[in-house]
Design a protein that fits this description.
mainly alpha, single chain, about 300 residues, 13 helices, globular
Amino acid sequence: MGHFMAFVTVAIWGSTFVFTKMLLLNGLSPAQIFTLRFLIAYVLLLAFELATRRQSFRLVSRSWRDELLMLLLGVSGGSLYFLTENAAMLYTTATNTSLIVCSCPLFAMLLIALVYRKSERFTGVQVVGSLLACLGMAVVVMNGHFVLHLSPKGDMLAFGACLCWAVYSLLMKAVTERYSTFFITRKVFFYGLLTILPYYVVFPGFPSMEVIFSRGVIWNLLFLSVVASMICFLVWNWVIRRLGAVIATNWVYFNPITTILFAWWLLHEQITPWFLLGTALILTGMFLCEKRHSA
């Protein structure tokens, strides 16, 4: 069930490019899209918890150190991650961005190995499996066109997004045992929104209510807010609790696969042999990681 829910979540995240593109075409900026997504998701999640009177409901963490961890989660998995990833697309190619951002499982494994040296020891089989999955992801993204256009500014921004998600996975490992999935997810939304506010000091402006409630915006925004943000973040945080940070993060390698499948389904783009080869490498690599991990 953990792997199935991870696959569903990554599949939904892989489809969000279409809905985000529609919002961009309607005049919204990446920061405005992120703010509206997290704001709607936070309000709905808070209302749901209050309406159901969940016994685990709480507004603040048990200590200021834990509250600081929640702040870091909101930055690494929210505001800073989305800003660096979206900004990278302005300065480098989509291929470069996908390759760098989707390699975050390798960095997550490295960070967790460094921080949890005693409890998390990765074997050669796990490392080979992760490298194999990473290679498969590269094959899928590049699709037979082995040309990279270096852009230091854009590539560094994409690398920053990659590190943000790796840090998010590391921090999630530290808090999942002490707090509920609902509490952690709500805190991620709250601090994501709080830390995006300085951006509007530098780049002021926000879409009008008429624009937000127009047909070309509201339905795409609701999908990104309710499904891709609120539900998917809840499920993903549960998946990390269930599978562990390393195994769960390896599912990020599937992101470009689901994106291409979604484009094939809705946009009638062609499935190439390179896609099939890369998919096989990703599946093999993840099988090696999970098999050894379970043993």
